[in-house]
Design brief:
The longest helix has 16 residues. It is built from 13 helices and eight strands. The protein is globular, with a radius of gyration of 18 Å. The protein has 296 residues and is α/β, with parallel strands linked by helices. 46% of the residues lie in helices and 12% in strands. The chain has one domain: TIM Barrel (Alpha-Beta Barrel). It has an eight-stranded parallel β-sheet with strand order 7-6-5-4-3-2-1-8. Helix 3 links the parallel strand 3 and strand 4.
């Protein structure tokens, strides 16, 4: 299994909508081309940033089909399939057309608050239901439960097709524990744009990013420098981008990054309820930071 394809910068793609609230296919094609031309390492379709909770199964397949058509085999594609009903997730793994997908990103079950054994059994069931590589996704801020390092490491050792974890716990000690004890080939991927440089410095393998939608070249340069152990350059690039990152999330993701993509002429700023557009004050702050980054 070629794991190098999931090192570096993966981008959790937004799903552009038109004024009627439908998928804006032209904008999605434009975004896909923008990211490929921007040098990202792989594309992530229908993660949280893609507003997956508010898309139907048919719409999720539609976005995947559009991205794979434009990509035309250039970059690996990761598709988000997760949920808190294990049987339903297995059904999705078996019924989506995944013929052009290279790996699955699957968030730990949310709301149910399973025990660590429940989380392990959930992922065990998924790993046994598909031959595709699986990237675990630990995001306690959204799921209300943390996947402990012991559970991540147990899964990494027990299942060959569980190949990585996207860690968005924000807990550097937890992340470093996984890095220190993981199997050699298992990847630790940042799920926090602001912590990507520190995680890479600690031995992580890259990021699945939100900011990469809007600044693929700039963020790729930072990630690449870090992975080459050129930390002086990586730190400079990191601190250049750092001020805009909290602004992107200040009033909900992906409303912030969609606003920056609107500035850049890639897609509109439309989101689906319960998300709403960002405030005028935040728009002004994002415009100011975007202008500064573009001039740097």
């Amino acid at each position: 299994m070629e794991l190098n394809r999931f090192k570096g910068l993966g981008v959790a793609m937004v799903t552009p909508f038109n004024t009627e609230g439908n998928i804006d296919t032209a904008a999605l094609k434009k975004l896909t081309t923008f990211l490929i031309d921007g040098g990202v390492d792989y594309l992530v379709v229908q993660g949280t940033t893609g507003e997956s909770p508010v898309l139907s199964k048919a719409e999720k397949q539609q976005t995947l089909d559009i991205v794979t058509e434009v990509n035309n085999g250039k970059l690996p594609i990761v598709f988000g399939i997760g949920g808190n009903n294990t049987a339903a997730v297995v059904n999705d793994l078996q019924t989506y057309n995944l013929s052009k997908v290279n790996a699955i990103l699957s968030a730990s079950p949310y709301y149910n608050k399973p025990t660590q054994e429940g989380i392990y059994q959930h992922y065990k069931t998924l790993a046994e239901a598909t031959s595709l590589p699986i990237i675990l996704y630990n995001v306690p801020g959204r799921t209300a439960s943390n996947v402990l390092p012991s559970t991540t490491l147990r899964l990494a050792n027990d299942f060959e097709n569980i190949i990585a974890v996207k860690e968005a716990s924000g807990d550097m000690e937890q992340i470093m524990t996984i890095i220190r004890q993981k199997p050699e080939e298992f990847l630790v991927i940042s799920g926090d744009d602001a912590l990507t440089m520190p995680i890479i410095a600690a031995g992580g393998n890259g990021v699945i990013s939100v900011i990469g939608n809007a600044f693929p070249i700039e963020f790729k340069n930072m990630v690449a420098a870090g992975l080459k152990d050129e930390m002086t350059a990586a730190r400079e690039l990191h601190y250049n981008l750092l001020p805009i990152i909290p602004l992107l999330f200040a009033e909900g993701n992906p409303a912030g990054v969609k606003e920056v993509l609107k500035f850049k002429g890639i897609c509109g700023d439309h989101v689906r309820l319960p998300l709403v557009n960002i405030s005028d004050n935040l728009k002004a702050a994002l415009q100011k930071e975007t202008d500064r980054i573009n001039k740097s």
